[in-house]
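Researcher: We're reviewing a set of sequences before deciding which ones to prioritize for further study. For each one, I'd like a predicted 3D structure that I can look through quickly. This is dTDP-4-dehydrorhamnose 3,5-epimerase-like enzyme. If possible, include the structure in token form so it fits the rest of the review sheet.
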Amino acid sequence: MKKTLNDIQEIKIPKISDPDGRGNLSVIEKEVLPYKIERVYYLYDVPSDATRGGHAHINLQQSLIALSGSFDVVLDDGNERKIISLNKPDKALFIPQGIWRELENFSSGAVCLALVSEIYKEEDYIRDYKDFLTFKSR
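Model: Here's the predicted structure for dTDP-4-dehydrorhamnose 3,5-epimerase-like enzyme, in token form for your review sheet.
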């Protein structure tokens, strides 16, 4: 089944607020995400004028979280594009396979956490947008 922008989900991560005002704790376990996490990585010290991502995946699913600061995620399913801003550490953006993504407009001090369903496999990446459109038209 071909994935579209309708398959992207914003997932609320459980947040536990300390009753004594000592801050919050968020937990990702059990069925918070719709897949098993196989790899974790994070982006930081990204210049505000830089773009990250610029690819799609054949099989990999991922969720992005703004642990600190903010950034925009440009999402494209081959037919339409939309931008979602992330700026809360208790909100994950679930991106299924077959969706092109670009990350941009990083604020100073932004940290992007990625929780992914697969270990790194270069053959799972579609890095050329024309190849992505061909993949989506199959």
